[in-house]
Amino acid sequence: MRILLVEDSEDLGDAISSKLRLSGHAVEWVRDGDAAAEMAAAEAFDAILLDINLPGRDGFSVLAGLRAARIASPVLVMTARSEIDDKIGILDLGADDYMVKPFDLRELEARLRALLRRPAGALSSAVAIGDLVIDHAAGLARLGAAPLDLSRREFRLLEILASRLGQVIPKQRLMDQLFSLDDEVSENALELYVSRLRRKLHGAPLSIVTVRGAGYAARTHDA
């Protein structure tokens, strides 16, 4: 996932970003509400981790602004407030979930996996395209009974393309979702991942096609 982390605590922010990056996610970390609102409006994120007590605009204001602007990225609020009225207020403003500090980072990752499944409305974490099965929660794919040996970024690329079957996804958008803003990468890096994934999908009912001058699309063989 490409995640926006909004947390002004250096210790907690560093712990969360390090944990998520080790798990293969691209994390953009900002430390105040104004920067969070600006980045969320300019970039596409799979999920937003939002602290409530922030310098400048607080988390309530940021969350309300996101939903007013029709930014649909799932938002998980991190708060030190445990009162029931605060929790209700957070959800009523449009948060998808919340966690009360302190929390276990393993639970945070599990909540994020759940948020990733919600936008597609999936009743299961696994999606089947013919005999190709993509398990979002496990981060695994298999072709028939054989697991595919995919790196984290190869799996993420497959997720993005397969979730929009037949749609052309621009190269820049794919790069934004695969790599962190801190990564110095060119289109050659994306092309390398596409080439590797194509080889590993040999025999699958899904192919990655290049749409010259536009981007890439995943198409089933009967499309």
TrEMBL record:
GO biological process: regulation of DNA-templated transcription
Domain OmpR/PhoB-type: 124-220
DNA-binding region: 124-220
Listed SUPFAM superfamilies: CheY-like (SSF52172)
4-aspartylphosphate modification, residue list: D51
Keyword set, alphabetical order: DNA-binding, Phosphoprotein, Transcription, Transcription regulation, Two-component regulatory system
One MF term in the entry's GO annotations: phosphorelay response regulator activity
Organism, scientific name: Alsobacter sp. KACC 23698
GO cellular component terms given for this protein: cytosol; protein-DNA complex
Protein name per the record: Response regulator transcription factor
InterPro entries found in the cross-reference section: CheY-like_superfamily (IPR011006), OmpR/PhoB-type_DNA-bd (IPR001867), Sig_transdc_resp-reg_receiver (IPR001789), WalR-like (IPR039420), WH-like_DNA-bd_sf (IPR036388)
Gene3D superfamilies: 3.40.50.2300, 6.10.250.690, Winged helix-like DNA-binding domain superfamily/Winged helix DNA-binding domain
Pfam families the record matches: Response_reg, Trans_reg_C
